[in-house]
From TrEMBL:
<dbReference type="InterPro" id="IPR041232">
    <property type="entry name" value="NPL"/>
</dbReference>
<feature type="region of interest" description="Disordered">
    <location>
        <begin position="155"/>
        <end position="178"/>
    </location>
</feature>
<dbReference type="Pfam" id="PF17800">
    <property type="entry name" value="NPL"/>
</dbReference>
<feature type="domain" description="Nucleoplasmin-like">
    <location>
        <begin position="11"/>
        <end position="112"/>
    </location>
</feature>
<protein>
    <recommendedName>
        <fullName>Nucleoplasmin-like domain-containing protein</fullName>
    </recommendedName>
</protein>
Length: 178
């Protein structure tokens, strides 16, 4: 989803946990406040009950193929640090991507351009869906041990894992029946 807004007055957006928000300011934009959402989603595997939301900002020159810089802006925790007052400026010749790990985050700011509002191009805001985070997957059961033809491998009985099937294959290999 992409839309444009006039580059004057107040500005706000919501960065949701499954999306990134790309911002191309038409005028200098000053971020003033970042807050966590009122409705918190509790993760199923939450350790120690921490519901931290980490906001990451990536910036690059418009049209450049490589990200120039990436920084953690804030880490918000319910009932401890729910709001973050800041003074971060975004400039028109760059594009910025906001990404959150944790719960949704609200960003508030104000355009600080000098001159009539009609002189500034519109600010483009684009929400980008991110791929879901995959949980750590352990070793697959169909991975087979690799046998070496070196003498050291023949002498070492622990080349493969210790499962019964691997021991049987190792004995067959040493006997030359494979």
């Amino acid at each position: 989803m992409s839309f444009e807004v006039q580059s004057y007055g107040s500005w706000s957006t919501v960065v949701e946990r499954s999306t990134s928000v790309l911002v191309r300011p038409g005028a200098p934009l000053q971020l003033q406040s970042i807050s966590i959402s009122f409705a918190l989603q509790v993760p199923k595997n939450s350790k120690k009950g921490v519901l931290r939301s980490v906001l990451i900002l990536t910036s690059r020159v418009r049209g450049a193929p490589i990200e120039a810089s990436r920084a953690v802006i804030t880490s918000l925790v319910p009932e401890k640090t729910e709001n973050f007052d800041c003074n971060i400026r975004l400039f028109p010749h760059k594009e910025y991507t906001f990404e959150v790990h944790g719960n949704d985050v609200h960003i508030f700011g104000e355009f600080i351009g000098i001159g009539p509002a009609q002189d500034f191009p519109k600010t483009e805001i684009r929400k980008i869906l991110r791929a879901p985070h995959r949980e750590h997957i352990g070793q697959s059961s169909f991975i087979r041990p690799v046998y070496s033809t070196s003498v050291a491998a023949e002498e070492d009985s622990t080349v493969a894992n210790s499962s019964d099937g691997a021991r049987k294959r190792r004995k067959e290999w040493k006997a030359g029946t494979v």
